[in-house]
Design goal:
The chain is built from 14 helices and nine strands. With 347 residues, the chain is of the alpha/beta class. The chain is globular. The chain binds S-adenosylmethionine, iron/sulfur cluster and FE2/S2 (inorganic) cluster.
């Protein structure tokens, strides 16, 4: 199996069968071998710099019904909220003073936030913080909408593909949603000129090594600038309430493989990883990730943006999370960089 890791490092891709073999045979020795390489590759491009993104969860209203998600439309127990423009701007101001130079506006697919409102928010944030990058993560929209957001000044867009296998996608989503549309959105975003992020949950219900191999091949095909990978964690009010969570080990392994395949990708060590293990985010960095996304949302709404159970950092102020994260990164020999943290293309 080590030969396959060497091959991935050299060729930056494997065949479907080779990915399946690697993923099915992961073991602690292979992890060690992979992570050592992943860290060297990441450090070659980004040294020991960790980029921070200030996450603003600005609405938990969603018209979609993804079966895994705690803020899905059908969850009657979710206490809904949306932030005002002024609240979002306050979050940015707080974040800016703490050293954030990227803001991520994330939310459910909330019809209240039509294109005019989103564009207005983008323009105001960019006019107040012209040295910052703005990332959107607000789901599937039309080509024209994405184009309008880009023209308004948004720089990046996160849209996890969730799974690259059609059958698997159907088991995770209602019939009204399709993988082909999700992929088309990603192609559109790329064509428009966004820095694009795809990604998936590790350990989502019905996932297997074959599906993970397909995820790797799709990521290779898309060549995104960012990849978001974190463990699936069940939420008590969803149809997947009693499904097991994804494991720390497999999530770290996938992060390592992605680093070898896309040496300069921007890859977060996610809050979900920190939720399944107290040192999850540190371990994610040590497996090849190079981004962390502390929360800037106001404390009174944080415990309402619950995608999964037991989410961490829901009671902490933005500054507390930021200092906590700085400390955690320093403890493992890394440092948080005050920088937009743009993608660095291979030269
Ligand atoms: N609504 C937008 C979308 O779906 O792209 C953005 C927000 S959505 C909550 C962000 C991501 O959360 C999803 O892409 C999904 O991978 C992740 N997520 C949702 N439910 C989750 C769960 N139960 N465990 C882990 N991650 C989850
Ligand atoms: Fe809505 Fe996104 Fe959750 Fe799906 S994953 S229900 S689109 S917030
Ligand atoms: Fe939020 Fe540690 S990162 S409290």
């Amino acid at each position: 199996m080590k030969a396959l890791i060497d091959k991935l490092e050299k060729k930056r891709n494997l065949t479907n069968e080779e990915f399946v073999a690697l993923i099915s045979n992961r073991n602690p020795e292979l992890d060690k071998y992979l992570f050592e390489k992943a860290v060297v590759i990441r450090n070659r491009h980004y040294e020991s710099d960790i980029y921070i993104r200030g996450l603003i969860e600005f609405t938990n209203f969603c018209k979609k019904d993804c079966l895994y998600c705690g803020i899905r439309k059908s969850n009657q127990n979710a206490e809904r909220y949306r932030l005002t423009k002024e609240q979002v701007l306050d979050c940015c101001k707080t974040g800016y003073d703490l050293g954030f130079r990227t803001f991520v506006l994330q939310g459910g697919e909330d019809a209240y936030f039509n294109d005019d409102r989103i564009c207005d928010m983008i323009k105001t944030i960019k006019s107040q913080h012209s040295d910052c990058a703005l990332t959107l993560s607000i789901g599937e929209k039309s080509y024209a909408s994405y184009e309008a957001y880009h023209n308004a000044g948004a720089d990046r867009y996160l849209l996890r593909h969730e799974t690259a296998n059609d059958e698997h996608y159907k088991k995770l989503h209602p019939l009204s949603m399709s993988l082909s549309n999700r992929k088309q959105c990603l192609y559109n975003l790329k064509k428009i000129g966004f820095q694009v992020g795809c990604g998936f949950m590790v350990g989502s219900p019905y996932q297997n090594a074959e599906y993970l191999a397909e995820d790797m091949l799709f990521i290779h095909y898309l060549q995104p600038q960012m990849v978001g990978v974190g463990p699936f964690i069940p939420h008590r009010d969803t149809p997947f309430a009693s499904e097991p969570a994804g494991t720390l080990e497999m999530t770290l392994f996938m992060l390592g493989l992605i680093r070898l395949m896309l040496p300069n990708v921007l890859m977060p060590s996610t809050t979900a990883l920190g939720t399944i293990h107290p040192k999850g985010r540190e371990l994610g960095i040590l497996a090849g990730a190079n981004v962390v996304m502390p929360n800037l949302s106001p404390t009174d709404v944080r415990n309402k943006y619950l995608l999964y159970d037991n989410k961490i950092c829901t009671g902490d102020e933005a500054a507390e999370c930021q200092y906590c994260m700085q400390h955690r990164m320093e403890e493992i020999g890394y440092s948080i960089k005050v920088d937009r943290g743009d993608y660095k293309p291979v030269v």
